[in-house]
Design brief:
Helices cover 2% and strands 42% of the residues. The chain is mainly β. A hairpin with a 5-residue loop joins strand 19 and strand 20.
């Protein structure tokens, strides 16, 4: 006697899961997952609905990436990136400014393929843009009225002092000797250290800046002293100092506090290169150059003892020291490839010269990058992450902390009222021993979304609430690995739009889009859950961004790139109200409303949900009439766009354990496949090929048979929108196999919600 297996599914909240779960009957992802879920979105109830359409905003030629920015309350713009271009569009899609590397003074070296690597951050009315290590950061600024400008990021000059970070990048142990304290000087190094690339850059000799002017060889350059250099001093003693002081020792004055490095000794003297200046805080801020010298009334204290000075000579030219350092970023050392804004500071990271370095500018002073130290709490900060990592991104996150995403590890920096972000406060707490990929993380609600180092899975940082480990990392795509590859972007809205569900948008390297439905409770639980599924269509998606509730797409249709926005009231992509075009799509005289895709085809809908089928577009952009019943190409509600096919395929239930031997290994047949739908405007039920593969067999998953449930039934008026039906339908899928497959798809535009699937299987 044949055995019947009956399965019903009302929860689809895991989305499309890995097909290897097909035999894992009791797994939560198998119970609430689908074998296919393309172009559907998951509802809070657990049901699914065909995805939202996209409304066309404006044409965007030469553009590969569009981002939305709010420059001030009520002033929203789109900043767009093309190969060697930056475009600024207003809220109506009008191009108001263009910057390119051929003019406008900008240097924009990226190609179309490079554009995902661009990182930008907004501070007040300026947008700071970084890209690769060869481009000086660019600053795009709006004047608050109508004028946009672009300029290189340049650290401010305070007098002749360049307010930029310095760090010892050149090999340690090499000393340099300047020929004088001021003016044009010669500089001699104790070992090869200079290159022609040093010309035009600065070094600091004992915290005093020198601009390198010319190169002679690896040990000899000339320079100009931008801040007076500390000199050297000969100190005399009544007894032999060589038993106490050695060359290289750093010594301290017992009364004056003066510091110096011993460069030479005799039986009665030592020569020190002075290392300290009067009132160091004043000097570092205001550029005073008075050297703090040793006095004849004090003792010199060194690592091996002290000795009283008998007399001191006057300060003379420097005698050299190993205490010097280099500019962190310039044309020679390269520039940071990542930027962020937090705590009223502009921050940079991913420095080519110091991969683990992170720099924060002074508070409310985005061009003051000169590190003063703890004596100036509002001053700039420069720190190195531990463990020889490369810092890729710094992201402000929950509880005011900052999260540091590196190639090999992830850290967080605690910031709160008791530990504000000031010089000396930065501590790196390890969060994960696994690194992150070069994809900019995004914040959503109380989580930070990021990509693993292999760029093939989605991760999240969540607040755990534990005292010693306040944050955890969690995997979000453990059962959806087949959907992700070479991820290039993450987008996540931060506000609700026309629906209450929250989604994550992820684009792969092949431009395929994967969308995940989540809620905060599911992600922060011990078993985090996101329901992922692919979205596709006629258009080739180039980029997706999200700001507040807006999800903005950069998409190419038949070679024409446009900007479009997710719109839950529409059922087509690139949707345009043909007789009420946005201003940016206004055609020139003689051209039709679809002038931007001539000689192509388009799907038409009227009265919101009435699908009129596919129409041709002539060479001038006009829709070619077909004379169908109820056709009105002048209708105010006529929408033209591109349709897609939405697909849902459940797992066929397996036989439960029981006394019959081999019952899970026998061929099976779907004798009943049922679906309960609401707001239905038609769909198709069918069977997919799942038999034995032979030389002449179709590919697995090929549609073999189907039954259509149309939008209009007998006695319906097809000139009106179809009734949105609530109904249960069924279809017996013919044929037997070890893995019988049944599918529902919607290939006509219009609403459809699926609340329950039922399958009866005979074995």
């Amino acid at each position: 006697m044949a055995q019947k297996i009956i399965g019903a599914q009302r929860d689809f909240s895991f989305g499309e899961v890995d097909p290897t779960l097909k035999r894992a009957d009791d797994h939560p992802a198998r119970k609430a997952g689908l074998r296919q879920m393309a172009n559907f979105r998951i509802l809070n109830s657990g049901g699914v609905q065909d995805r939202s359409g996209r409304r066309a905003l404006f044409p965007a030629p030469h553009v590969e990436r569009i981002e939305e920015v709010t420059m001030s309350p009520g002033n929203i713009f789109k900043i767009a990136f093309g190969a060697g271009y930056i475009f600024i569009y207003d809220a109506n899609g009008a191009l108001i400014k263009q910057f390119d590397k051929q003019g406008n003074g900008a240097y924009l070296p990226w190609s179309a393929a490079d554009i995902p690597s661009i990182v930008f951050a907004q501070f007040n009315l300026s947008i700071y843009i970084t890209f690769s290590h060869s481009m000086r950061p660019q600053v795009v600024t709006w004047d608050g009225v109508s004028t946009w400008s672009i300029a290189d990021y340049n650290e401010i000059l305070l007098g002749t002092q360049k307010r930029t970070p310095f760090y010892r990048l050149s090999p340690q142990g090499i000393s340099i000797i300047p020929s004088a304290q001021t003016g044009s000087i010669n500089i001699v190094a104790s070992a090869p250290v200079f290159t022609p690339g040093h010309v035009g850059t600065r070094i600091r000799f004992v915290n005093r800046q020198i601009l390198i002017a010319s190169y002679s060889d690896s040990q000899h350059v000339t320079g100009f002293v931008e801040e007076s250099l500390p000199g050297s001093q000969v100190l005399h003693f009544t007894s032999d100092p060589r038993s106490i002081f050695n060359v290289g020792d750093v010594v301290l004055g017992s009364v004056t506090g003066s510091r110096g490095q011993v460069n030479a000794t005799t039986s009665t003297t030592i020569t020190v290169q002075l290392l300290s200046l009067t009132t160091s805080t004043f000097i570092s801020v205001f550029g005073n150059s008075n050297t703090l010298a040793f006095a004849g009334t004090e003792s010199v204290v060194g690592p091996s003892g002290s000795l009283a000075i008998s007399v001191t000579d006057s300060i003379t030219a420097p005698t050299g020291t190993t205490v010097w350092d280099d500019e962190v970023m310039n044309d020679y050392r390269g520039y940071p490839a990542s930027v962020f804004v937090d705590q009223f500071r502009v921050g940079f990271c991913d420095f080519p010269a110091i991969p683990g370095g992170i720099g924060w500018t002074a508070i409310n002073a985005p061009t003051d990058f000169y590190v003063v130290g703890a004596t100036v709490p509002s001053g700039a900060i420069f720190e190195l992450a531990p463990d020889k990592v490369q810092v890729l991104y710094v992201v402000p996150g929950p509880e005011s902390s900052e999260f540091v995403f590196c190639d090999q590890k992830i850290y967080y920096i605690k910031i709160d009222a008791s530990n504000p972000l000031v010089p000396g406060s930065v501590r790196f707490a390890a969060l994960s021993g696994d690194g992150a990929g070069r994809v900019q993380p995004r914040t959503a609600q109380e989580i930070i979304l990021y990509v693993n180092a292999g760029r093939n899975s989605m991760m999240a940082i969540v607040a755990s609430g534990a005292y010693y480990r306040p944050f955890n990392t969690k995997g979000l795509s453990d059962f959806h690995a087949h959907l992700f590859n070479n991820i290039v972007l993450i987008a996540a809205p931060t506000a609700d739009g026309t629906f209450n569900e929250r989604y994550i948008y992820v684009m792969n390297g092949d431009n395929s889009l994967v969308v995940g439905k989540y809620n905060l409770a599911d992600i922060t639980s011990d078993q985090p859950k996101v329901g992922w599924g692919p979205w596709s269509g006629v258009g080739a998606i180039k980029w997706v961004c999200a700001m507040d509730a807006d999800v903005v797409f950069t998409t190419s249709y038949f070679g024409a790139t446009i900007c479009e926005i997710l719109d839950d009231s529409l059922y087509l992509d690139s949707a345009l109200f043909v007789n009420a075009l946005p201003a940016a799509f206004t055609p020139t005289p003689g051209l039709g409303p679809l002038w931007w895709i001539p000689s192509q085809t388009v799907a038409l809908m009227d009265q919101v949900t009435r699908s009129m089928g596919t129409y041709d577009i002539d060479a001038t952009g006009f829709i070619v009439p077909q004379g169908n019943g109820g056709e009105n190409l002048a209708s105010a509600s006529l929408v033209a766009g591109q349709q897609w096919t939405a697909t849902v395929e459940p797992f066929t239930p397996n036989a439960p354990p029981g006394p019959d031997a081999n019952q899970r290994m026998k061929m099976r047949q779907i004798s009943y496949f049922g679906v309960y739908v609401i707001h239905s405007t038609g769909f198709v039920m069918g069977g997919l090929f799942s038999g034995r593969i032979t030389r002449t067999s179709p590919a697995l998953g090929t549609l073999m048979n189907d039954r259509r449930f149309p939008a209009w039934m007998q006695d319906d008026d097809p000139t009106l929108p179809p009734p949105q039906r609530e109904i249960a339908e069924f279809y017996p899928v013919p044929g037997s196999s070890y893995d019988p497959r049944a599918v529902i798809f919607k290939d006509t535009p219009g609403p459809l919600q699926i609340l329950e699937l039922a399958i009866e299987v005979s074995i």
